[in-house]
Structure formats: C-alpha cells, structure tokens
Amino acid sequence: MAGLELLSDQGFRIDGRRVHELRKIQCRLGVFSQADGSAYIEQGNTKVLAAIRGSKQKTLHDKVLVNCQYSMATFSTGERKRRPRGDRKSQEMTMHLRQTFDAAILTNLYPRSQIDIFVEVLQSDGGNYCASVNAATLALIDAGIPLKDYVCACSASFVNDSPIVDINYLEESSGKPEIIVATLPKSEQIVFLEMNSRLHEDNLSKVVDTAVKGCKDVYQILDTAVRDHVSQVATVHGWEN
Amino acid sequence: MSSGEEPLEKGNRHVRLKNVNGKHISVVREVYRRDDIPCQSLLCLANCPNDKDDVGLLPADITHYVIPDCQVARDYLEIFETPEITGIIFLQTVAHSILTDCSNKTINVFVLTLKEYLDTFWKLAVLGLMELYDSITASLETKIKSKGYLGYLPTEVLEAGLKSGQFIQGFINVNKSNAAEEAFVKRKRRDPKDNEGSDILIHGKSSRNRAIHGDLVVVELLPRSEWRGRSLVIKEEKQEKEDAEENDDTEEMEESSNVMPTGQVVGIVQRQWREYVATFSQNEDAGSGKVLVIPWDFRIPKIRISTRQVNTLKDQRIVVKIDSWDVDSQYPNGHFVKSLGPIGDLETEISALLVENSILLTSFSEAQELPVDTSEHPWEIEASELTKRRDLRDTHLIFSIDPKGCEDVDDTLSVRYLDNGNIELGVHIADVTHFVKPGSLTDQEAKIRSTTVYLADRRYDMLPSILSANLCSLISGVDRYAVSVIWELDSCYEIAQAMFDGISVTKIVENVPELKEIPQNKLSYKVEELRSFVSLLMEIARHLKAKRIQGGALELESVEVQVQLTETKSIADLTPKDHLEIHDTIAECMIFANHWVAKKIAEVFPNNALLRHHPLPKEEQFANLLSCAAARGFTINITTNKDLADSLDKCVIPGDPEVNKLLRSLATMAMSNASYFSTGNLSRTEFFHYGLALDLYTHFTSPIRRYADVLVHRQLMAAIGYTGSSGLPGNVELDELAEHINYKHRVRISLNDSWAHSASTRIDIVSNQPFISSIQQEDTHKQQKANMIKEVSAAAVERRILTSSYELGVNFEQIKAEYGQTSSNQSFYCLFESFKESAICS
C-alpha cells in the first residue's frame, strides 16, 4: 500500500474519518430465538454474528467451561476463503476469545457447566477481533450471563506521528503497527492486548490510550444499544415500571 | 463515532482490484461523507464553525467561487492558471459526488460545465480564453480518438475464430485515394468460403487498428447494419496526387455505391513491414527528439522516429523502418535507417523507387557456381551435351529481331521449307535451366528477384551478367544452348505437326536489329535469304493472329513512347515509338510458342504445371468504357471477348483515330489481372486466357528475365523426357511460387509506373529542370498524351496505361527506354509482351 496517503495533511483518513473517530457501529440483540443469547454487530463494513448456548456438563467442578468457536464465512473476504474454521488464524482467534471471556465472565457461578460462544464473521473489513468481542459481549448480555463488565475491544494504529483509532482493512494491511485492546471500560482494566508490527516504545502508551479511549466510545454505543433493547423487550412483555 | 457527535453519513465505494495471482476481486470500501468541514470564507452564509486563524482562506473580494471537477481540473488546468480567474476551489475528493449530490439544489452552489462557466463569466473579460478552451478541447478529442485502438486478440482466439469462420484472414490494402479512412481486405485466395468473393471494407482508423498496408490481418465482420459503401469522392486535400491513382482501386472494387461487407481488424497474423522512404515535413522543428516523418507511399501512416539530425536530413529522402505500434499511440514508432540523398537528385529518386518496391540493390553474391568465359578460358559447348542435343547450327537459319544494343537475347526464330513442301517454324529460347540448376545459389537468388527490372537508363538483372548478357543470351555468331519449339506447317499454315525438340544447339546467324536497318547490313549474301524468311514469317504470323482474333482475342490499344536520353541522363526527347509489323509478328510467334508449351506441360503435369491465366473481367468494370463509348454514340457489347473485340472494331470515327485508341485503352483498364497459377489449384474451366482467347497459356519465352519461364522450362524438359521430373515443385510449392512471382511482377509494374512517388514532387522536378530520371518519364509521357486523353478522366486513364506499360517497355528501355503501353497483366499485355519479346533481340 505504498504511496497511499493514510492520513492527509488536513487530518482526514482515507475513508473520511478523523483520527479519533470510530467507524459507524450498528448492533442488534436477540437475533436468534433458538440460541440462549445472540447479537449482530456492524462496525463499518465488518459484520459479525454471535450466539451463546449454555449446557450442563460435568467437565469442571468449580467453574464454568467457556468454549469458543470463531469462523469466517467463505464470502466474508474479497477472495473466497477456503477453510472457514480450523485454520491457524481462526484457532488463534478462538483461543484469544476464550481467554478474553474467561476473564470477564463470573465463571464460578456455574460449576459443572459449559458456555459455548459461536462467532461468525459475515463480512471482514478490518478489526475482526474487536467486532467479535463486542458481538459476543452483547450476546452474553442477551443470554443473561453475569459479567464483570462489558468487554469492549478496539484497535488503534500509529500513522504520521498521530495515533488513529478503529482501523479498517486498508489501514490494517498498510504495514503500520496495530494494537488491539479489550478492556473492561468501567475499571479501565485491560483483559487482552495484542500488537502487530513494530512501534517505538515512546509511542506505545499514546496508542494504547487511544485504543482504550476507543473502547470507552464503543462501550457508550453498546450500552445504549443494550438499554434500548431491554426497554423494548420490557415494553413487549409489559414489565415497564 | 465519538459520542456526542452527529453520526456521519456512510457510503460504500466498490472497487475491482487484481490480486497477486491476477484474479479480479471486488473490494468494498466505506466512505464517510462529512458535513462539518468549515468553508473558511469570509462570505460564509451558512454559519460554518470557521477557525479564527483560517478564516479568509477563501478571499471575500470576488463574486463567486468555482469548483472544477477532477476531469476539468486535469484537462483544462492551463485555463485555471490564467491569473484573471480567481476563487477556484480544488476539491480533494472525486468530483462526481459533488455533481450528483450538490447539484443545483444547494444554495449558492451552481454546477455548470466549464464551457458554460467560461461563457457566462469570462467571455467578455478575458479575450482568447475561449480560443484556448477550444484548442485544448480539440487536442483532447484527437487524443481520445487516437487512443481508440483496441488490443489484438490472442493467437488462440484468432485461430479458433478463423477455423469456425467467424474471422476472415487476408491482406489489407489501403485505398490510395482515401488512405486515411478506407482500406480493403482481400480474402486469401485459398479461402474456401470465397462465395461472397468481395473484399471487406475497413472503414476508419480505429477499425483498421494499426494495420499497415500489406499486413496479413484477421478481420471480424461487423453486423450487417453497420456495413457501408465505399466513398465515391476523392479526398480533396490530396487530389493532386490521388486522382491519378483513383482508377486502380475502383477497378478492384464492387459497384461503388453498394454496401459492402465491413469489418474491423482484430489481429495481425503477419506484419509486412519493410523499409519505407520518407521525408520530413516542412515545418518540423529542429532539435526535438521525436519527429514525425511522412512516408513516400501515402498509404503508410506517418511514422514517429527520434533523430537529432533533423536539420541535416531535412531536404533528403530517408529510409525508415517501423519498430512497433503501441495501442495507445496514434502513429507507429520507427527509426531512421539511412539517408538516400537530396530530394530531386536522380540517384536519390531511383534508389527511393527501388527501396519502395523492395527491389534488391545488392550485387550478386560471390559464391555462385558460375561458368567462366574469359579470353583465356573461352566457354565452349560440352561434347556430352552435343550428343544429347539436336544440332541446328548448320541446318537452320536462326535469327533474332531485337532493338539495337539489346544484351539479353532470349528468343530467336527460324523458318525454312521442308522437302515435302511444308514449312518448318522454330522458336528457340535460351536454355537458362542448363546453367541454373534447381536449388543452386543462382536459382535461389533468381527466385527471390523473380524478374529483371528495367529503368530508363539501367536495369537490375535477375541472373548474373555472365549468364544474362553472355552465356544465356543468344548473341549472333556464337554457339549457344537453346530450347526449341518447332512446328511443321502445311502450305495453308495449318499445323501439321508440333514437336518440342527440346534441347538444341543453335547458332544465331544474324540479329536483325530492326527491319528497316537490314539493307545497311553488310552480310549481303544472307540479306536476301533473311528477307524472304522474314516476310514468310510475317505471313504466317498474320495467319495465326487472324485465327486467334476470330476466336475472340482482343486487340487493345497501346501508345509507346521512346525516351531519348542525353549523356547526362536527362531526357532529351520523347518520341512516339513506331509500331512495326515485325513486332506483331514476333509477338504472335511467342504467343504461339507459349501456348503450345502450356499445352504440353498441362498434359504431362495435370496437377502441377505453371500456367498463366487471365480471368473474365467483371462487368461493372466496363462501366467507364460503356459510358465513354455511349458519349460518342457507340455501343459496346461485352458479353464475350469476341463480342467486345468486334464492337471495339466498329467504334471508328473516320478521320479521328484517337477515339478508337482511347476506347481500347479504356477496355484495357477494365481487364482483370492475369496471373500465374498451378494447374492443381484451379478448375480446368479457369485456365483460359481471356485476352488472348487461348485455352491454355504460360510464359516460356523469356527465361533470362522472368523466373516463371525458368520454372516452365524445367517442366517442359521433364515433360519431353530430357530430364527427370524429380526436382519439380509440387502443387502446393508451385502455388506459393506463383504467388511470389505474381507479387514481384506487380512490384515491377508499379515500379515502372511509379505512381507512388508523390506526383507533386515529380511535377516540380519536371517543370524546373528538364527531365531528370526515369521517374519523370511518365510525367513527360503524361504531357505528351495529355491532349489525347484529357477528355476522358485523363489522369486515371493514364495511370492505368502506365501500369500496363511496364512489361512492354522492358526491353526497349534497355536501349533507350522506350515505353510501350499495354496493360501488362492483360490479354493485351500478353500480346505485347510477346511482341516485346520478339523485339528484344536486335
């Protein structure tokens, strides 16, 4: 992507956003009736579907077993994807998701049982992990599984001496550094942090701060969506207070 | 989005990209449209949240801002650079969204085309702006036009298309009178689907798609709705040069106004690029790296070459070669090869003619296995040959009739009374094949040259001079090998018996330079004898000719001009050549011999004999003749060759012989071209020779000058069992050879008539310095004939005549470049051809 100006002198990115602006996020909860909990999220053109299923199994006696399955639809990328799941990248992503939610779910409330988190990427345009985490959080909330806090993820990069937030595929593939952070926004605790490519350590804190700020922005949107959803459901069921 | 901000409007941009493997992938990128960018103008009406520092970025002292879209900004940047126009906002993003989204709906934003804008605001204020706009627009248009070429299809597709009949293969032939627009593709002769028979019109430069005159191209036919007729108008701008040529093309075409198959070039099988003679245009600036040169042959597009010698080469004819023609280039790229010399110089013009016609200038290579004939080692007849051949040295009086000074005498005659009262007529042709063995270097060289080329003051031989001017030439007083055809005629000159005595040894008793010179000959004791023989011969010939004319042979008109050169090689005078009956006599004998040889080889080699045929002329080509004749109150019947000949005979206005001559010239023009062919390739009915009214014909009598005759000689030798038939070419090979010879023949003809050279140059030269070179012959020639021909589309007629003249002229030129005029390729031509042959031998 050499020669592509990721950030113009006027401070606009290729797609017209400023450095601190997220992509447009749209989400819905409870998209499936069969699953215990489900959610759909769009972050720009990255579209992810998540579903939760809980079951009693005698695997672990003291806490719940969190099981993840991450997959990308064959049509999610520009070129047809040959192995929707089971390749190294998906396995890694699966593992990351499991670690993330292991840390966020109050696991000791449900001994001898298992929570399955299914994540399907329908369209991929950068920030797959972030969208997956955000979708899974919504789905867990939809399922009524107690969490320490929302888990919000956001990515950031560093271009022309300024950090940019929520990078899309074009920015992701430009070879610039990429930091992915998942946080518990209220406590600003970081549950997951991953960095690709190289970044000078002087800039690390700036970029991480930007990403955490992005997570907080995401949290605002998710929280609004959850509240809207709950009030909607309550109206339907006549639980209004 | 950061919380608290208005959400941005999101859009998608679809892009198609290629991945590393060359596959196309479709990519969607999102785009956010912002409405929060301040205008920074002091005149802001919308209360933009302008920064304090940046306010005033857009000046307030103007009436309007102009926002050019990217296309306009790119193409017309020069206009926006004029200092008078201010208040231009160049947008960062693509402008079509502006056009679509902000069009006139938004307050204070008006979307105009650039032209409207300039018209409205600047037309009166800044003069010259509109001119600038127009000129840029014009140049853009030509650019767009020139880039209209399509790439060629891949070879596999072409091959498949050719097989399935979707595409047609043929040689492209650019219309001389409309070189910019029209070209025609002649379907290849062997094309089995030749049912439509007509040529395919390629209209316009983009359909021609970078094909250059002569290339073997693949054509795709356009849908029938897009077919069109050829233009009837000669393009005005070049009329000077071109009306002279116009006729040649019209002849090959169908009825002019008719719609004809139209196609476009989709691929090129073979480039026929050669070296082209070109000149610089007058106003080319010196010093620039890339220069366009104008080829002499205006069917060739201008060629872009890079040279730093523009100034030195400005007034010279140069040779350039085309290297490539890129899809996005209007002109082909080439390079400068060499300079021929200053324009107008005799040598320059001649070498230009030769280069243009791809005639080999090089002398013969050293490594040829040639016989020796020097004073130390005189060449002698081999004893072994003597036993095989029939010795005619003592029994026959053999003589040749050629103009004085002729060096390559290849045909001689003999006539004598036999004891039984019959007459024996012999035609003896130089035995070239004895020296030129098939496959030898000399043979290969001759095959490439195919023909001897004659110019007014020089000639380029087909065979090395030791053969052409010495050992193969039937010179008086020496022993030579020959191939003879001998007939026994009864007293009524009906053929009693014909034999090909094949090989004979001849001794020419005397060359009869021209009949009228005989009395001055010192060999008085033989003069009387010769004289009686010649008159006998003339009588026989008259008889033969009468029979042929009865059969429908055409007698067409020719005008011959004799060019008298001074020592400095300028043309001293042009005189109409006397037409002597002896010429007809010789011609008749040669036709007779050719005919019989054709019979013989066609009988022995039904599948691979080299013959010459002259197909029926197309009816529409007679239109000119018919209308001209009608103007004088004659009707011409063109149903058969006999009818045509008869009606031509009737077109006589007493006291005005030119009328008949003219009509005959026109008839000549209507003829199609005679050509060589291999008997295996055509059906028996196509063998005939229209002009001569003979069922079979070939060329046999000039082996020194024509390669076809050499081939026929070999075939005849094999046919009479003198040599084996092992080395003879098969049908396919022979057909290719025939094509090659036909091509070379045409070249030679066109060289002699040399229309190609810019007529204007020629005329200049002619008028400035009296007559310089062979090139100008025609011009002088033109002047000579102008009065005669004027009334009937002078130039066209003349041009045609010139075409035909070559063959005839051949020998005369040798001496003093006489020009005979027949259509070389036509019946008439054949007639005179042979007459020329006869005339050669003095």
TrEMBL record, chain A:
Belongs to the RNase PH family. CDD domains: RNase_PH_RRP41. InterPro entries: ExoRNase_PH_dom1, ExoRNase_PH_dom2, ExoRNase_PH_dom2_sf, PNPase/RNase_PH_dom_sf, Ribosomal_Su5_D2-typ_SF, RNase_PH. It comes from Tegillarca granosa (Malaysian cockle). This is Exosome component 4. Residues 21-146, 149-214 form the Exoribonuclease phosphorolytic domain.
Automatic annotation (TrEMBL), chain B:
This is DIS3-like exonuclease 1. It catalyses: Exonucleolytic cleavage in the 3'- to 5'-direction to yield nucleoside 5'-phosphates. Its cofactor is Mg(2+). It is found in: Cytoplasm. Its EC number is 3.1.13.1. Its main location: cytoplasm. Keywords: Cytoplasm, Exonuclease, Exosome, Hydrolase, Magnesium, Nuclease, RNA-binding. Residues 238-259 are annotated as: Disordered. It holds the Pfam family Rrp44_CSD1. The keyword Calcium does not apply. Belongs to the RNR ribonuclease family. Residues 242-255 have a biased composition (Acidic residues). Residues 389-722 form the RNB domain.
